[in-house]
Specification:
single chain, about 150 residues, mainly alpha, two-stranded antiparallel sheet
């Protein structure tokens, strides 16, 4: 009975230690959450003071083979390009787009011509030779049929 009581006391001490550790961890967790909220509040404050956040950007992408052309500019921005440069870039983009469309049309025409020649080749039947004495399927099948007895 004495050993049983001692074992229960040690178990109680172990559980008590675990409980204290858990309470300590919970307090640290609350402190960290409070620090996180304070940091988020500071970030929101800094973001609201950022003057570049409210600038809307105009993105123009092209449908060229090299999809890496991305022009970004704003009319009111300090970094905006002049109207002449903008028109020049738009003209370049349009020229590349038309060139790409022309190349695509040429590729499609080549593919269509290739398919057309392949179909014509497959549609052509070999002409029967004059000396060719091929027997029809019906003729061959009739040879293998056993005559009916009457």
């Amino acid at each position: 009975m004495q050993k049983k009581m001692e074992a229960q006391e040690t178990e109680l001490k172990v559980q008590s230690g675990k409980l204290q550790l858990l309470q300590k961890l919970m307090e640290e967790n609350k402190e960290l959450k409070a620090q996180l909220e304070a940091a988020k509040a500071r970030i929101r404050e800094f973001e609201s003071q950022d003057p570049t956040k409210n600038i809307e950007l105009e993105n123009i992408t092209t449908e060229t083979a090299d999809q890496d052309i991305l022009l970004t500019g704003t009319y009111e921005s300090i970094h905006s390009i002049s109207q002449e440069e903008w028109e020049k870039r738009k003209a370049e983009i349009e020229a590349k787009k038309q060139q790409q469309q022309q190349q695509d049309k040429e590729k499609q025409m080549k593919q269509l011509k290739k398919l057309d020649t392949q179909q014509k080749h497959h549609q052509q039947q070999p002409k029967p030779k004059e000396n060719d004495t091929t027997t029809s399927y019906a003729h061959i099948a009739s040879r293998n049929v056993v005559p009916k007895k009457r």
